[in-house]
């Protein structure tokens, strides 16, 4: 970032499961949290603050990706760790979480009461049938990442075990946008880019939830690249909603 007011800093919070790291700024404004997916590059969305100057943007990588793993490194501890960090660093701050892929599952599982909006990119709810996930262990860089893949996605070299996160929708109570790719998952095949991991059954479940609006965008799992303008429109709308939230005045 070039503007001194927008330079990122790293926030570290000790939790019962280990340290949680966040990168961003804190000027007291409403908060947009970016929860990235597996193997996200360290710089992903590090300039989003310039696009959303009226809020504070902080970025969260999955533990073991550019930051220490948690113990145990599974979705429950990751979401509880992020919940603890948000309540410690930004108590009572109206918050929207922008979750991508596995980060979308983390966003769904966070229980911090200040979270008022979710924007979820490709929030797959089940893993066993999502065949593109099965190849991820081959690109894991170390044992911590392999443990994360097994615990959260149920995939390891030569081994697949179902992970089912549909129950996270049962407690969803804030307005949520789910952005899913139009390229269907289908059967295992050679494809130029990863298809959507949100199959028809998960898509239907999201569409019938009273708090979720589903939008199909061009592309597959990487709709954040294929439909960047549309993606930013939804994130900017969520940011505007938390700025205008009437509870902000009494928080």
TrEMBL record:
- Write down the InterPro entries for this protein, in alphabetical order: AB_hydrolase_fold
Q: What is this protein called?
A: AB hydrolase-1 domain-containing protein
Q: Which organism's genome codes for this protein?
A: Phenylobacterium kunshanense
């Amino acid at each position: 970032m070039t503007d001194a007011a927008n330079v990122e800093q790293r926030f570290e919070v000790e939790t019962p499961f280990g340290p949680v790291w966040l990168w961003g700024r804190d000027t007291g404004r409403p908060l947009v949290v970016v929860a990235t997916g597996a193997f996200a590059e360290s710089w992903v969305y590090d300039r989003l603050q310039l696009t959303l100057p009226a809020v504070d943007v902080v970025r969260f990588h999955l533990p073991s990706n550019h930051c220490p793993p948690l113990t145990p490194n599974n979705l429950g501890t990751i979401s509880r760790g992020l919940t603890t960090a948000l309540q410690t660093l930004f108590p009572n701050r109206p918050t929207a979480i922008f979750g991508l892929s596995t980060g979308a599952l983390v966003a769904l599982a966070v229980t911090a009461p200040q979270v008022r909006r979710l924007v979820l990119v490709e929030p797959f709810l089940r893993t066993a049938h999502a065949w593109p996930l099965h190849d991820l262990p081959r690109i894991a860089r170390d044992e911590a990442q392999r443990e994360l893949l097994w615990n959260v996605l149920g995939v390891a070299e030569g081994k697949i075990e179902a992970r089912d996160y549909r129950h996270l929708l049962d407690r969803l109570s804030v307005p949520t946008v789910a952005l899913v790719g139009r390229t269907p998952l289908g059967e295992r095949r050679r494809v130029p880019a990863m298809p959507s991991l949100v199959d028809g059954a998960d898509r239907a479940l999201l569409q019938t939830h009273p708090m979720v609006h589903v939008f199909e965008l061009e592309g597959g799992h990487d709709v954040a690249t294929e439909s960047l303008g549309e993606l930013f429109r939804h994130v900017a709308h969520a940011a505007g909603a938390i700025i205008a939230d009437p509870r902000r005045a009494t928080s």
